[in-house]
Amino acid sequence: MNKTAFRFCCLTALTVLVGCNASSTSSSSPGGDSGSAAQNIKLQGSGASFPAPLYGRWFKEYSAATEGVKVDYQAKGSGGGIKDFIGHTVDFAASDAAMNDSEIAQVDDGVVLLPMTAGSVVLAYNLPKLKKPLVLSRDAYSKIFLGKIAKWNDEAITATNEGVDLPDLPVTVVRRADSSGTTFVFTNHLSAISKEFADGPGVGKSVSWPESDKFIAAPKNDGVTATIMQTPGAIGYVEFGFADQAKLPMATLQNAAGKFIEPTLENATAALAGVEMPEDLRAWLPDPTGDNAYPIVSYTWLLCYEKYEDSSKAAALKSLVKWCLHQGQESSAEMGYIPLPENVVATVTEKLESIQ
């Protein structure tokens, strides 16, 4: 199976064997502790579609190296994952929006938030006759998602695309239909750069988008990607890797320094440079600084309980997470994600020990 096919098949239920050797009692690698988990343990998880392709690859590679634990991960959106986690219908969840204090307060067993990777949210578009990459100012792309720009040849867009023949075509905005961490990351950024957006739709996993027949809702990152591909004149927000694998063009965006930045992994990594990880590991980048910083970047988190009734299940989960933090990071860039900085890996590894 090629990489593109693998990425998209990951977005349904990801059920793979990723296990531990029950006969072993110690680990020989930094991803380790494979012998700490018992045989035939099932770990059930759900949540963000943003990191699902990478998680799918990690789980598959981990299964090739170990045995004995089954992991079932369903990519249903960050909001769905948090709901499942609060309801104790899963052993772990995943979210690009972490959890807020009120959500954490609903979990009696305690919550451990673990950033596992990072990625960028890009504006992918469908303008087949465009000869050059689309360049958008902060004013232009915030107005697009406020429903204030109706045509692609609007002066707010033509101003930063000199010499480009932009079509007299309606702008169709594709947004998420589900409760989404990607929406949270994107609206957090838009609210940071536009007071009108902050006072209007605002920040959230679900927001009240403009009521217009030119705003189309689609589920999960793959649904938004597919809808953009099928809709001439469309633009929507998705995780970088989805647009990259679908070969959709991505807009160059103006950052906080006033520079126009292409959505590359190098520029997304530059956005993380000035971020310090707080004690609760909830680090946000609503509008990163730095000349080369791509403007829409976020960590994405695993949500784990602090206490598990089944100690062998806790050990199996910790073993899997340690592998992802070490060996797993090696494949992040290839899949379109940002490998965690070494200091963040060390901090998260230490935090993992609070799980019992």
TrEMBL record:
Domain of life: Bacteria
Entries under CDD domains matching the protein: PBP2_PstS
Keywords: Phosphate transport, Signal, Transport
Xref: InterPro entries: ABC_phos-bd_PstS, PBP_domain, Phosphate-bind_PstS
Leader sequence segment: 1-22
Oligomer status and interactors: The complex is composed of two ATP-binding proteins (PstB), two transmembrane proteins (PstC and PstA) and a solute-binding protein (PstS).
Record function comment: Part of the ABC transporter complex PstSACB involved in phosphate import.
Name of protein: Phosphate-binding protein
Origin species: Novipirellula caenicola
Gene of this entry: pstS_2
